[in-house]
Structures are given as structure tokens and as C-alpha cells.
Amino acid sequence: MRKTLTTIGNSLGLIIDRPILELLHIDKDTPLEIETDGKSLIIRPVTPEARKSQVRDATKRMMDAHDETLRKLAK
């Protein structure tokens, strides 16, 4: 399947056909993860497990970066 980008305001968008959305169980409220390997664009729905993992990773990075400040605030 070949698609072209559509102008949406100052941006470009890709229209995904209904059968593909239904196959992947994606609707307008589904959070999507977008990645690239430098040549391809990969779009996939974010699963609850993946979302929990992302939050856990972000929390760890924040705690590592601000450990001293958080310890001072805890006193």
C-alpha cells in the first residue's frame, strides 16, 4: 500500500485506512509510539505494559538525576 502525506495546518499527516485501524485495535484515543531506525517509521499502539515500563524508566531517570535534591526535600 502506498500513501501520501496530507497537509494539516503547518504539519503533515498520514491517513490510516479504517481496516488497518480495526486490525490493530486503534481508535482516536489510542496512544501511539513512534520510532525510527533511520530509514523506516514504526508506529504501534502503546500497550498498558509498555506504558507502565515507560513511566517506571522515566521515574528512575528522574530519581537518579535529582537524588540529592529529593533526599533534602524528604528531611
From TrEMBL:
Gene3D superfamilies: 2.10.260.10. One of its GO terms (molecular function) is DNA binding. InterPro entries: SpoVT-AbrB_dom, SpoVT-AbrB_sf. It comes from the Bacteria. Residues 6-51 form the SpoVT-AbrB domain. SUPFAM superfamilies: AbrB/MazE/MraZ-like. Signal peptide: none annotated. Coiled coil: none annotated. This is SpoVT-AbrB domain-containing protein. It comes from Cystobacter fuscus (strain ATCC 25194 / DSM 2262 / NBRC 100088 / M29).
